[in-house]
Amino acid sequence: MKLSRPVSWFLLVFGAWSWVIWVTFVKNLWKDGSGLAFDDAGDPTAYFWVHLLLAVTSFLLGTAVGVIGFRGVRALRREAGGGRGREDGRDDADEGVRAGG
Fold first, then answer.
1. Which of 19, 28, 65, 76 is disulfide-compatible with 15, CB 3.0–4.6 A?
2. Could you tell me the pTM of the whole model?
3. Is 38 helix (H, G, I), strand (E, B) or coil?
């Protein structure tokens, strides 16, 4: 599958944006003084754990989306630069990922 330039950049920017948003959210969650995230004894509440799980999931998904976008941008640049790499259009780094190494 080949991604277009706008789609590749959108995915890359979306991945970065999700990190900015969720890092800010976790910082605010950690400093919460309203009593939602931490009880009177200072222990995390269910609200804290659920929202931390949401943030971690969003970090992982944002990273995956960003990596897909980055690979799309990199492939488009490689293609525009004369297709440096192997004759079949893949480079050794891509082969290492497929081989598990």
1. 65
2. 0.69
3. strand
The set of long-range contacts for 6-11, using a CB threshold of 8 Å and a minimum separation of 24, is 7/69, 7/72, 8/69, 8/72, 8/73, 8/75, 8/76, 9/69, 9/73, 10/69, 11/65, 11/66, 11/68, 11/69, 11/72
What is the model's pLDDT at position 86? 52
Q: What is the per-residue pLDDT across 63-75, written as a single tens digit (0 to 9) for each?
A: 999 999 999 999 9
Count other C-beta atoms under 10 Å from residue 72's C-beta. Answer: 21
101 DSSP assignment: -
What's the farthest any 2 CA atoms get from each other in the chain? 64
Distance, C-alpha 57 to centroid of its chain: 10
CB 29 within 8 A of CB 55: yes
Closest CA to 59 of 28, 25, 29: 25
